[in-house]
Write a structure and sequence with these properties.
Elements lengths: L4 E13 L5 E13 L3 E6 L5 H8 L7 E6 L2 E2 L5 H7 L3 E5 L2 H4 L6 H11 L7 H11 L16 H13 L5 E5 L7 H18 L2 E6 L2 H7 L2 E6 L2 E7 H6 L4 H22 L4 H17 L1
Parallel strand pairs: 3-8, 3-9, 6-7, 7-8
Antiparallel strand pairs: 1-2, 1-4, 4-5, 9-10
Helix pairs in contact: 4-5, 5-6, 6-7
Bound molecules: adenosine-5'-diphosphate and magnesium ion.
Length: about 290
């Protein structure tokens, strides 16, 4: 089958059932394609199903219903071990390193584990791990650090280093810039794009922030309550959103954007202005 899609998800459903038997329909008939070499943005409010979708796209979670076509092969009915092999070069980068690394082991242990799986000879494990950290802007002493000893930006860099250990073809980044300041956000996005170029990746960028995603994604999918509300190019979504939900996200984006522009014009950094508002709010409460 000739196709430009590296991945296709067709009519995916996923329900979580909690310990007290409460069911949540996290994905309801979701169909997505990821095209070769593109950057696909997935946006939506918290709880709309973005992380669930990302995890199914990288095989770290199984769907209840629907089909998955990976590199042109229908892998839906493969046994779990075989499916994991097929998904080996599809990786997720999380905002929190706790998701990507074992807390009891160092960053180096995690990276060396994946290098072993890549059949890198034992005597090259360390130098290769140092090289991967270096690509991601971390000095080699971070090999000995534990995940909880890292700052937000360092954590993301360590997660990226681990993901590229397996020479990925698909990278799904889940809210990786959420807790970072504007400069580090820019640096991380730059790093991801460098990596995308080196590995010729297809990339998914999950975020609640439509403003950010619209700046560099080729296409955008808007998620609402476990369904796709809308999809299109960044320009189409930003300039001509069709659903009320997408309109709301765009309006919010424009509001935040213009607020930032005003703050910028006043020469106040965003955090300072937020602190000022908090202070004013506190004073009002005291009066
Ligand atoms: N492990 C889980 N157990 C039960 N419910 C879950 C679990 N993970 C996610 N959910 C629920 O599924 C829905 C979608 O969650 P998620 O995919 O994390 O959304 P998002 O990433 O957009 O915030 C939410 O209602 C969430 O509470
Ligand atoms: Mg999420």
């Amino acid at each position: 089958m000739a196709t430009d899609n590296v991945l296709e998800l067709n009519h995916i459903r996923k329900t979580y059932t909690s310990k007290n038997k409460i069911s949540t329909l996290a994905l309801n008939d979701v169909s997505v394609e990821l095209r070769m070499g593109e950057v696909l943005g997935i946006v939506g409010e918290s709880g709309s199903g973005k992380t669930t979708l990302g995890r199914i796209m990288t095989g770290s979670l199984a769907q209840d219903e629907g089909h998955i076509i990976l590199f042109g092969n229908d892998i839906t009915d493969l046994k779990p071990k075989k499916k994991a092999e097929e998904f080996f070069h599809s990786r997720m980068v999380y905002q929190i390193p706790q998701e990507a690394f074992d807390q009891k082991h160092t960053i180096g242990d995690g990276i060396r584990d994946d290098l072993k799986a890549m059949k890198v000879p034992r005597k090259e494990l360390n130098s290769k791990a140092v090289e991967l950290l270096d690509v991601c802007g971390l000095p080699q002493e971070y090999l000995e650090h534990y995940p909880f000893e890292m700052s937000g930006g360092q954590s993301v860099r360590a997660c990226v280093a681990r993901a590229i250990t397996v020479e990925p073809e698909i990278l799904v980044c889940d809210e990786v810039t959420r807790a970072l300041d504007a400069t580090e956000q820019k640096n991380i996005i730059q790093l991801l794009f460098n990596i995308k170029r080196v590995y010729n990746l297809s990339m998914v960028f999950i975020s609640h922030d439509l403003n950010l995603v619209s700046k560099f994604c080729d296409r955008i999918i808007v998620m609402e309550n476990g369904k796709i509300a809308e999809q299109g190019s960044a320009k189409e979504i930003m300039e001509n959103p069709k659903t009320d939900y997408a309109k709301k996200l765009v309006e919010h984006t424009l509001l935040v954007h213009s607020e930032n522009a005003v703050i910028g014009a006043l020469g106040l950094p965003r955090a300072a202005s937020q602190a000022k508002r908090d202070e004013e709010h506190r004073k009002q409460l005291e009066e």
